Amino acid sequence: MRLRVEFTTEPFDLDEAPAHALVAREVIEAAELDEVDVGPFGNTAEGGADRVLTAVDALLRKALQAGATRVSLQVNVVGEGER
What we know:
Layout: E1 2-10, H1 19-30, E2 35-38, E3 43-48, H2 49-65, E4 70-78
Antiparallel strand pairs: 1-3, 1-4, 2-3
Helix pairs in contact: 1-2
């Protein structure tokens, strides 16, 4: 099964990326997922279910430890025709 996760961390800082956003980016980029799109207002990653779920667990733990006060995320099952 393939999954797509979309997430944001808060609080936002438009002048400089906060520590929790940098940590979240590092976690997702290190997770060896197939597709990763990191942006200032939202992030998306896609891959096999085990890797995505493991990355989500690490993302939540590390972003909160780094000062995030809110992590919003959505996980979707991706069909083969949705890429």
